[in-house]
Amino acid sequence: MERRKLGTQGLEVGALGLGCMGMSDFYGPSDEAESLATIDRALELGVTLLDTADMYGPFKNEELLGRALRGRRQRVVLATKFGNRRSPDGAFLGICGTPDYVREACDASLRRLGVEVIDLYYQHRVDPTVPIEETVGAMAGLVKAGKVRFLGLSEAGSDTIRRAHAVHPISALQSEYSLWSRDPEAGILATVRELGIGFVAYSPLGRGFLSGQYRSAEALAPGDWRRMNPRFQGHNLDRNLQLVERIQEVAEGKGVTAAQLALAWVLARGRDIVPIPGTRRRARVEENVAAAGVALTRDDLARLDEVAPPGAAAGTRYPEAGMKSVGL
User: Is 254 in a helix, a strand, or coil?
Assistant: First the structure.
């Protein structure tokens, strides 16, 4: 698989990563054996970047990756996140970016992952009550202590990114980016490129919707978080299904799946962008990785701009409360 650089500090990963959240949380029941086999298959296919967070599970996803990495730690670029606090019973406790919490969260993640160092450590969401300089200053201390190699932010706004980068180099910004979430094109991508920061695109398949496999919210498992997502509801869902149908038409003309086309589009947006599609099944990993071999022509890209221009998706990316924590 092609390798791409994230930032200018030396971090290099496979062009496609693997988001592991759904193996433990948010998308309904999962099979641990199949999840572990999915990670195995991803590594066999050249995936190197595995993405998790302490809140997934909560805590269970990091423990899962810890089991998956035994005996092959050196093959993986391990990314995890802190900042969205949850109790062991799953209750959400808010966002925290205090220096003491940064250090506490890192030590807890290291224990659960069973590793001595985290390759890429993100602040999952910006804490509006703590100056970003204080949070990133504590994160820089983790680098100095040898507990973390590279630093990242998730869903931060341009001003915050600049202030953070002035304290310690930020290697990667992780934000949602796909054919139905093109918000970063309004300014964030320009900011990170100016500063030499890599971009990690989560949900590049629109939380699975762009694959065409979901036609109604009822198709989702009970307890699946997407049932509460505005884009999967009511009239928004109807409009978004029309968008997916147009994307599928383009995919059929290329002889690829809609998911492969959507991933190829993200990959084509720049060699400083690394999508991390999430899945918990081997067959999906194989389908996703094949997207790295799909070449899009200028005509293909122009056609996709026509069928899925910025703002084409109906509904916000998160419910109202979730939208308040992005772009800070």
Answer: helix
CB contact at 8 A, 123 and 83? yes
Q: How far apart are CA 237 and CA 326, in angstroms?
A: 22
DSSP 3-state of 85 = strand
Q: How many CA atoms lie within 13 A of 312 on its CB side?
A: 22
What is the spatial distance between Cα 92 and Cα 109, in angstroms, rounded to a whole number?
18
d(CA 103, CA 147): 10
DSSP 8-state code for residue 294? P
In tens, the pLDDT along 141-179 reads 999 999 999 999 999 999 999 999 999 999 999 999 999
What pLDDT score was predicted for residue 219?
87
59 token code pair: 């805590």
| Positions marked catalytic | 56
Residue 215 has pLDDT above 90, yes or no: no
Closest CA to 39 of 55, 27, 52, 50: 50
User: DSSP string covering 108-159, please?
Assistant: HHHHHHT-S-EEEEEESS--TTS-HHHHHHHHHHHHHTTSEEEEEEES--HH
Residue 169: name the closest of 201, 134, 146, 196 by CA.
Answer: 196
The tens digit of pLDDT for each residue in 239-274 reads: 999 999 999 999 999 999 999 999 999 999 999 999
CB 137 within 8 A of CB 167: yes
